[in-house]
TrEMBL record:
Pfam families: LuxC (PF05893). Keywords: NADP. This is Acyl-CoA reductase. InterPro entries: Ald_DH/histidinol_DH, CoA_reduct_LuxC. GO terms for molecular function: acyl-CoA dehydrogenase activity. It comes from Xanthomarina gelatinilytica. GO terms for biological process: bioluminescence.
Length: 352
């Protein structure tokens, strides 16, 4: 398959995914191979929900909507046009995926196949239903993908390079085990928001999506706030209120109750509104239903801290304080060129 054929195949997949959203599933006769795959994918969504309590219809639907928007022909073409694709020597690339949010490993899968390599996928047990089915759809759309995609639950063997995503602890094992291979090894990262007290209610409401989407389980979720001295959290909590139904989700509520009990028994100071706790803490990774905060003296000093801690941070959200920062509400809508950990996956794949 040439690059143009691969682009068109993924664009067709994007059209297929466009039938599945948070509002419901609408079958469109114009989508190729729907008679074979539409009902089957509905079943895979059902299996994913039953297998992982964090994968609600809302969360899966949101993920599918975003991938559908990203996988348009023009978007993919814009993405690839910044790279040099000549003289590609096809390799087999192993991809070890996380399972914290639906289809979290899809971008690596997409990049490997787009470049023209074979992909060997080792999925997390928490997210194992959606991607294999979409791979079958891709093979139906573009038979040239047959033999290029392999899933395994066994020990990885016979591969040329690896992309592995895990915790700081598993990363140490990855680095040792794959030390003889070209690799991208991803560790724990969290996202932060910088508040000045001048944010509008609408901006803080958009921040709530950065915090609560996927229950805060993603590395792009804001888990920590940097606030000025004596920051008044009243406006912040008011802006969070639209998400209060989240406390009706059993797994979230259990985590909220547990973490609240731990904080109370430990006599930690915290603020809470019945579904979210805010606690002063220097760490970046906060438990579910909790957002940490830290006070800063000056924005200049804070910028220095963020630069020093860059390897711990996935995204920084603010009201335009730095050109590298995202706007409120954008963390969970990454573009194809928003690479995890700031490492250009395509550049890596084109050079192996």
């Amino acid at each position: 398959m040439n690059l143009e054929e691969r682009i068109k195949a993924f664009a067709t997949l994007g059209t297929f995914l466009g039938q599945f959203s948070r509002e419901g599933y609408i079958k469109k006769d114009s989508v190729p191979h729907n008679e074979l795959f539409f009902d089957g994918f509905k079943h895979q969504i059902k299996l994913a929900k039953e297998h992982n309590g964090w994968f609600t219809e809302e969360q899966i639907g949101f993920a599918l909507e975003n991938w559908s928007k990203a996988l348009t022909y023009n978007n993919i073409k814009q993405f690839v046009d910044t790279y040099h694709f000549k003289d590609i020597n096809p390799k087999k690339v192993a991809v070890i995926m996380a399972g914290n949010i639906p289809l979290v490993g899809f971008h690596d899968f997409f990049c490997v196949l787009l470049v023209g390599h074979k992909v060997l996928v080792k999925q997390s047990s928490n997210d194992k239903h959606l991607l294999p089915y979409l791979a079958k759809y891709l093979e139906q759309v573009a038979p040239g993908f047959k033999g290029q995609i392999e899933f395994t639950e066994e020990k990885l063997r016979d591969f040329d390079a690896v992309i592995a995503t895990g915790s700081d602890n598993t990363a140490r094992y990855f680095e040792y085990y794959f030390k003889g291979k070209p690799s991208i090894i991803r560790k724990n990262r969290n996202s932060v928001a910088v508040l000045t007290g001048n944010e509008t209610d609408a901006e803080l409401e958009r921040l709530s999506h950065d915090i609560f989407r996927y229950y805060g389980l993603g590395c792009r979720n804001v888990s920590k706030l940097f606030v000025p001295k004596n920051y008044d959290f009243d406006s912040f909590f008011k802006a969070m209120y639209a998400w209060h139904p989240i406390i009706n989700e059993t797994k979230y509520a259990n985590n909220y109750d547990y973490n609240k009990a731990v904080y109370l028994m430990s006599e930690f100071d915290m603020l809470e509104n019945g579904f979210l706790m805010v606690k002063e803490d220097s760490s970046y990774a906060s438990p579910i239903a909790t957002v940490f905060y830290e006070q800063y003296e000056t924005l200049e000093a804070l910028q220095h801290k963020l630069e020093t801690d860059a390897e711990k941070i996935q995204c920084v959200v603010s009201k335009g304080l730095n050109k590298s920062h995202l706007a409120f509400g954008e963390t969970q809508q990454p573009q194809l060129w928003d690479f995890a950990d700031g490492v250009d996956t395509m550049d890596f794949l084109l050079k192996i």
